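Z., the sequence and structure:
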Amino acid sequence: MISVLRFHFVSTPAPISSQKSPSLSLNPPRLPPPSLKRISISNALNFNSLEARSLRYAISSMAGSDFSYVNPAVAEIIVVRHGETAWNADGRIQGHLDVELNDAGRQQAVAVANRLAKEPKISAVYSSDLKRALETAQIIATTCGNLEVIKDPDLRERHLGDLQGLVYREAVTTKPEAWGALRSHSSDQTIPGGGESLDQLYQRCTSSLQKIGNKHRGEQVVVVTHGGTIRSLCKRAQHHGDRGGKILNTSVNIFHLSDGEKWKIKSWGDISHLHQTEYLQSGFGGDKNSG
C-alpha cells in the first residue's frame, strides 16, 4: 500500500507585508516538460520540489483522484494561475492591462483543463475578468463539462499604476517613483498612476475567495486568477509570509475553506500536468512580484 502524506497549514487572517522584486531577465529561460523518470522517493521529502509534486500527482492518479473527497463542511477551491502571455515571456508588467494568452499559454491551459476534467466533482468555475485568466478559465470550463465561467473583477491582478506596460529593466529609470512604491516595505503604499497597495489587493481578493467558499461548502470549484493575487491568498492562509517557490503559469494551488473562516493550503505550486508542455522558468509575475 502506498501512503501519501498530506500537509495542512492553518491560520487566521494576519497582516501582510510587501516583498522586494528580484531582477528579471528580458529573455527568461524556459524549462522542458517535467519528466516522471527523474522522480525519486528522497526528492519527495522536499514538499515544494517539482519532483515531489509530480510524484504526488502520479500516485494520486493511480489511486483514482487527487481530489476524490470533499468534506461537506469544507469548500475545496482549486486556484489556478492563468496561462502564459507574450508579456510574461518578455518580462513586461501587466497589472490590469488586458493581455491575451500566447500559444504556449493556450497549450498550458489545455493541459491543466485535461487534468481537472478527470475530477467529477467540479461544480463551478470562477475567473478574473482579464483576458489571460478568462481564456484559461473558459478552456477549463469547456473541458470540465461545459460549465459557465463566473467573472469576478475582484480576482484581478494588482493594479500597478504607471509601471503597467513597462519591462522591469526600464521601469527603474523611466518611472522611479512608481518603482520605489512597488519595492516599498509598507503594505499600504499605493503606486502612482492609480495603482493599488498590497493591502487593497489583499482585502478585495481574500473577500472574494471567502464569498466563494461560503457559497460552495461541500463542493469543489476552480478559481482562475493571477500570480500576485495568489500570493495574497496564500498570506491569508498562513501566518509566516510566503510559501516557498514560484507560482508558475497554470500551477494548481488547493485551498480548503471551512467554518469560522478558517483557511488551509492543501497543495501548492503543482505543475505536474505540464509533462508535455514547456513553461517559463522565471514564473514572471508569479514570483515575488505581481504582474
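Confidence is low (pLDDT under 50) at residues 1-27, 34-67. The chain has one domain: 11-36+70-280.

Let me know what you think.
H.
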